[in-house]
Amino acid sequence: MFTRIDHVGIACHDLDATAEFYRRVLGFEVTHEEVNEEQGVREAMLRTNGTDDGAASYIQLLEPIRADSPVARFLARHGEGVHHVAFGTGDVAGAADAIGGRGVRVLGGPRPGSMGSRITFLHPKDCGGVLTELVQSAQQDARTESEPDE
Amino acid sequence: MFTRIDHVGIACHDLDATAEFYRRVLGFEVTHEEVNEEQGVREAMLRTNGTDDGAASYIQLLEPIRADSPVARFLARHGEGVHHVAFGTGDVAGAADAIGGRGVRVLGGPRPGSMGSRITFLHPKDCGGVLTELVQSAQQDARTESEPDE
């Protein structure tokens, strides 16, 4: 069902300073930046490696753009650190349906994530304290559409 | 310097129950189990994907085996959840030296990690709240030894 660690999401107060830390200290470069108004965050994606499902893994840095966003609330409660872990799938809607049927709360339907992906989340209290994200990348969307099952 | 997300380390109270959750709900199987007496943990590695540096990414589940281990103290303070993020390198000693020279506290010299790897950690207060592990896998050791620089 899931074929990779898609990304690790890290909450920070200052996206530019944190991205510079990852570049200078660990050698990871920002490969994409965007604002997700719905999630209330500015985010940077730092590609760490390619994965054997044809996609890639990333560090995702998240800075809140308003005080009532989930990431702002996380920072107020916990301070900076790991916010969530995301797993990649070719079918986020199907994965969410299957997981919901296993007694885990799915937090809303698939919606836009980073770089044209479709995402949803699982309740951390149902996942051993880990806010777990499900991701279908834009490339996986395109592949699904151009290579239908036969 | 770092060529992959090697693993995400997750602290839990009950390794077997948490591994069963990852199998049943997310479809990830335990591919390795061991006890690390020095770190004071029992751990399970769940391989999520291969990586384009010839290694792989894992979810690492950690259950303390004694009350004074770092993971036991983490659980007492924070409850279950993400404990650390590990990045893979072909030269953990060199990476640690370089990073120490950039003003980040390295927590001890390279020592045994999961599956024959060599590991060390960076202080979370120097890394935006993320306990950051550096990993040189056993395969990377073997490759280095069998293919010396010419």
TrEMBL record, chains A, B:
<protein>
    <submittedName>
        <fullName>Methylmalonyl-CoA epimerase</fullName>
    </submittedName>
</protein>
<dbReference type="GO" id="GO:0046872">
    <property type="term" value="F:metal ion binding"/>
</dbReference>
<dbReference type="InterPro" id="IPR029068">
    <property type="entry name" value="Glyas_Bleomycin-R_OHBP_Dase"/>
</dbReference>
<dbReference type="GO" id="GO:0004493">
    <property type="term" value="F:methylmalonyl-CoA epimerase activity"/>
</dbReference>
<dbReference type="Pfam" id="PF13669">
    <property type="entry name" value="Glyoxalase_4"/>
</dbReference>
<dbReference type="GO" id="GO:0046491">
    <property type="term" value="P:L-methylmalonyl-CoA metabolic process"/>
</dbReference>
<feature type="domain" description="VOC">
    <location>
        <begin position="4"/>
        <end position="137"/>
    </location>
</feature>
<dbReference type="InterPro" id="IPR017515">
    <property type="entry name" value="MeMalonyl-CoA_epimerase"/>
</dbReference>
<dbReference type="InterPro" id="IPR037523">
    <property type="entry name" value="VOC_core"/>
</dbReference>
<dbReference type="InterPro" id="IPR051785">
    <property type="entry name" value="MMCE/EMCE_epimerase"/>
</dbReference>
<keyword id="KW-0479">Metal-binding</keyword>
<comment type="similarity">
    <text>Belongs to the methylmalonyl-CoA epimerase family.</text>
</comment>
